[in-house]
Write a structure and sequence with these properties.
Blueprint: H1 2-21, H2 27-46, H3 50-77, H4 82-95, H5 99-117, H6 122-157
Helix pairs in contact: 1-2, 1-6, 2-3, 2-6, 3-4, 3-6, 4-5, 5-6
Length: 162
C-alpha cells in the first residue's frame, strides 16, 4: 500500500511540474497537495513530516508571488511608469479568466494600455509591453525552478519506500 501512495504522489508531482509551464494546472499547488496527501496517508514515520510540508507551502506561496510580480517588475525594468506597471498587474488578473492566451496577452496589453493612458508614445508603451513579456517569461522559469526544488525536497526528505 505504501508503494501505491508513493506512485500517486509522484504522478501528481509530475502533473504539477507540467502545470508550471501550462497555466491551466496550478503546478505548485498540485505538488504541495501530493506531498500533503502522502503525509496524511503514510504518517510522519514514512513521509516527510509536517515541518517539511511547511517549507513546501512557503515555496508554493513564493512561486505565486513571483508569478504575479514578474510582469510588473519586467515592465518597470523597461521604463514603464506606475500606470504601465498597474496595467500589467490588472492585465494579469484579467488574463487569469482567459486561460493560456489571456495569461500571456493580458499583462502585455495591460502595460501597453496603461502607458498609453499615461500619455506615452506608442514606442514607449511598446517597450513596457515588451518588458512585461520578458518579465513573465522570467517568472515562468522561476516557477519551474521552484517546482523542481519542491519535488527534489520531497524526494530527499521523505524516507524511501523500500
Amino acid at each position: 500500500m505504501e508503494l501505491l501512495w508513493w506512485l500517486i504522489a509522484l504522478v501528481l508531482m509530475a502533473i504539477g511540474l507540467v502545470g508550471t509551464l501550462l497555466p491551466v494546472v496550478p503546478g505548485a499547488i498540485v505538488i504541495l497537495t501530493a506531498a500533503v496527501l502522502h503525509q496524511i496517508m503514510l504518517g510522519s514515520e514514512k513521509s516527510l513530516g509536517w515541518w517539511n510540508i511547511g517549507v513546501l507551502a512557503l515555496l508554493t506561496l513564493f512561486s505565486y508571488a513571483l508569478e504575479f510580480g514578474a510582469g510588473y517588475f519586467g515592465a518597470k525594468r523597461f521604463g514603464a511608469t506606475k500606470w504601465g506597471a498597474f496595467g500589467a498587474t490588472i492585465g494579469a488578473i484579467v488574463g487569469l479568466f482567459f486561460s493560456v492566451p489571456g495569461l500571456i496577452i493580458g499583462p502585455i496589453a495591460g502595460a501597453f494600455a496603461g502607458e498609453l493612458l499615461a500619455g506615452k508614445r506608442l514606442v514607449n508603451a511598446g517597450r513596457a509591453g515588451w518588458g512585461t513579456l520578458l518579465g513573465n517569461l522570467a517568472g515562468m522559469l522561476a516557477k519551474l525552478t521552484i517546482a523542481l526544488l519542491m519535488v527534489s525536497w520531497f524526494l530527499v526528505t521523505a524516507p524511501a519506500p523500500i
